[in-house]
Amino acid sequence: MSPKSKDMAGRGRRSAQSRRHEQSRKVKKFVKGFKPSMKARLLELDPRSLEEVLGMANKQERRAESYQGEKEAQKERVPKPFQR
Which segments show compositional bias classed as Basic and acidic residues (predicted)? Predict the structure, then answer.
């Protein structure tokens, strides 16, 4: 392997490492904006890219909305106490 090809191979690795670091930085910055409970859930899942964290956040949000809907529906079903 010539010295020039070694340099090029090294640059490729650093570039990939740099891209991973940049992606990780973006993910952390994005997750920072969430409420603490959502932030904790997302960080437990250890997302590697913005696409992953967006998908996970959407899934968590749908679960939370579903839970809220069920909770409200349950309140509506509770019979009112008997009054004279």
Answer: 1-10, 59-84
